[in-house]
C-alpha cells in the first residue's frame, strides 16, 4: 500500500516514454492523460516504425479498439520487439467477443507475445477464457466480481497480471487478488476511461517491475482521481475535463488518503 504513492513519484521523476498503439476514439485523451500523470506519450502505429519506437520506450501499450489489418500487423511487430527488448507490455482487448476478428486477434496476441498485464472490463476478461461468450461491444454487461475465476485461470496460464475494471477494480496475479474500490459510476459514461486505465498501467509498469503492484497503482490513480473529480462535475463532459486536471494535480498524499484497497 505505501509503495503505491512512490510509483506516482517515480513516474513524475522519470517521465517514462510510453508507446501506444491505440484506437482512433481515445488517442488524444490517452496522450493527455499520460502527460497529466507525468509520463511522456508517443502514439505510433506504422509498421515501418513501431519496432524503433519500442526500442526507445519504457513501456508498450497495445489497445485493439479500432483494429484493422495493417494495425494488427503493427501490433504484432511491436509486441515481438517488446519481448526481445524486455520492454514491459500491457494489452487492452477492447470488444473481444463482439466479433470473430476481435476474438482471434486477441487470442493470437496473448498466446504468442504474453502481455505482462492484460486490462479489460469484466465481459472482455470473461470472453478471453470462454470463446462462446459474445460481448455486447466495448461496454461490459457483467460485474467485475463475475470475472475473477476467468482472470485467475488466464493469469496462471500466462504467468502474468490481469486487471478487471468496473465498480471495483480487481487485480489478479495467480491466486493473489487485490481490489480497489474507488472511482465513480460516471467513469463508465465517458468513452475511453478504460483505455486511459490501460495507459496508466503502461506508465506504472514503465517504472515498477512488479506487475501486480504496478497495475494496482494504476487503478488506484484512476479511482482516487475519479473520487476527487466527482464532486466538482455535473456530467460526463465536465467530469472528463476535471479528471484530466485532477490527474495533473494528484499528490502522493491524496493517493494514500483516498485509496480503498483490499489485498
Ligand atoms: N461504477 C463504477 N464505479 C466506480 N468506478 C468505475 C465504475 N465503472 C467504471 N469505473 C472506473 O472507470 C474506469 C474504466 O473502467 P471500465 O470498466 O468502464 O472500462 P472499459 O469498459 O474498458 O471502458 P472503455 O472501453 O470505454 O475504455 C476504471 O478506472 C474503473 O475503475
Ligand atoms: C467506443 C469505442 N469503439 C471502439 S474503441 C472505443 C473506445 C472505448 O473502448
Ligand atoms: Mg475497454
From TrEMBL:
<keyword id="KW-0808">Transferase</keyword>
<comment type="pathway">
    <text>Cofactor biosynthesis; thiamine diphosphate biosynthesis; 4-methyl-5-(2-phosphoethyl)-thiazole from 5-(2-hydroxyethyl)-4-methylthiazole: step 1/1.</text>
</comment>
<feature type="binding site">
    <location>
        <position position="165"/>
    </location>
    <ligand>
        <name>ATP</name>
    </ligand>
</feature>
<protein>
    <recommendedName>
        <fullName>Hydroxyethylthiazole kinase</fullName>
        <ecNumber>2.7.1.50</ecNumber>
    </recommendedName>
</protein>
<dbReference type="GO" id="GO:0009228">
    <property type="term" value="P:thiamine biosynthetic process"/>
</dbReference>
<comment type="function">
    <text>Catalyzes the phosphorylation of the hydroxyl group of 4-methyl-5-beta-hydroxyethylthiazole (THZ).</text>
</comment>
<keyword id="KW-0479">Metal-binding</keyword>
<keyword id="KW-0784">Thiamine biosynthesis</keyword>
<dbReference type="GO" id="GO:0009229">
    <property type="term" value="P:thiamine diphosphate biosynthetic process"/>
</dbReference>
<comment type="similarity">
    <text>Belongs to the Thz kinase family.</text>
</comment>
<dbReference type="GO" id="GO:0004417">
    <property type="term" value="F:hydroxyethylthiazole kinase activity"/>
</dbReference>
<feature type="binding site">
    <location>
        <position position="43"/>
    </location>
    <ligand>
        <name>substrate</name>
    </ligand>
</feature>
<dbReference type="InterPro" id="IPR029056">
    <property type="entry name" value="Ribokinase-like"/>
</dbReference>
<dbReference type="GO" id="GO:0005524">
    <property type="term" value="F:ATP binding"/>
</dbReference>
<keyword id="KW-0418">Kinase</keyword>
<feature type="binding site">
    <location>
        <position position="119"/>
    </location>
    <ligand>
        <name>ATP</name>
    </ligand>
</feature>
<feature type="binding site">
    <location>
        <position position="192"/>
    </location>
    <ligand>
        <name>substrate</name>
    </ligand>
</feature>
<keyword id="KW-0460">Magnesium</keyword>
<dbReference type="Pfam" id="PF02110">
    <property type="entry name" value="HK"/>
</dbReference>
<keyword id="KW-0547">Nucleotide-binding</keyword>
<dbReference type="GO" id="GO:0000287">
    <property type="term" value="F:magnesium ion binding"/>
</dbReference>
<keyword id="KW-0067">ATP-binding</keyword>
<dbReference type="InterPro" id="IPR000417">
    <property type="entry name" value="Hyethyz_kinase"/>
</dbReference>
